[in-house]
Amino acid sequence: MTYLDRQEFLAWAYDDLLTNTTRGVLAEYIVAKSLGICDTKRVEWDKYDLVIGDIGVEVKSAAYVQTWKQTRLSEIAFNIRPAKGWDARANTSAASAGRSADVYVFCLLTVTDREHADPLNVAQWTFYVLPTSVLNREVTEQKTIRLRPLKSLRPHECAYEELKASIHQAAAVNRGLGHW
């Protein structure tokens, strides 16, 4: 039997970084890179996307341009649905639905011209960082949030270089140790 080439598989399966699922994983990687935690591997279906110390981070992604032919730019919306999270470390599921992470990072690929879209260029992304407590207080059971209502919650809008500090600040606020 032939042993398959890993790089060939990755190129075959994940070459198009604009597809929703691949872009979402890339957004998680970008946030992990900013936090300096790329030495840990991604855990599929965990109760939150990233862990830095004792901080759980949920990463959401959206873009104006998509892989498919579009007649207009996509409307920006992020999934914020409370869920019964599965804890990969303990191999248990939460008894009730909720938002498990301390911080949400909403990653928006801002480019509006597909020809110039390069999801690997962090300068093409804007990040909106929000303590989960704000979502829980303001949009308790809401399943999705569009960009304008998200901005009305006053997330910290930042570039890649500010992301790590913003996540730590939001985590402190989420734990009642700071002001938003």
TrEMBL record:
Protein name listed in UniProt: Restriction endonuclease
Organism: Mycolicibacterium sphagni
Source domain of life: Bacteria
